[in-house]
Amino acid sequence: MSHNYYVLSGEYIWEIWFSTNLSIIFSSILAVLKARRKKEEGRGKKEEGVNIEKKGKMIESKMNWSSFF
Q: Taking burial as the number of CB atoms within 10 A of a residue's CB, which of 11, 14, 27, 49 is the most buried?
């Protein structure tokens, strides 16, 4: 019975960990897409779009893909 408890808690922890990583990836992709859209439409200053895009790329490069496996 205690074995089942550990399996269930492990799955729960995995779900939390996985959803957290997905939200980080999703938000960084959104930041890059917003920056590109701003660039294409020419809204605001061009410099702001470049800065946002650089931030998005920095977040993506900081993420280590080996953490998924």
A: 49
Continuous segment of H or E residues that includes residue 13: helix 2-41
- Map out the domains of the chain as residue ranges: 2-68
Query: Is residue 32 a contact partner of residue 56, using CB atoms and an 8 Å limit?
Result: yes
Element (H, E) at 68: none
What is the amino acid identity at position 11? E
46-62 and 2-41 helices, crossing angle to 10°: 160
Average pLDDT of the segment spanning 34-48: 66
Q: What is the pLDDT of the chain when averaged over all its residues? A: 64
The span from the CA of 10 to the CA of 47, in Å, is 46
Place of tokens 């790329």: 57
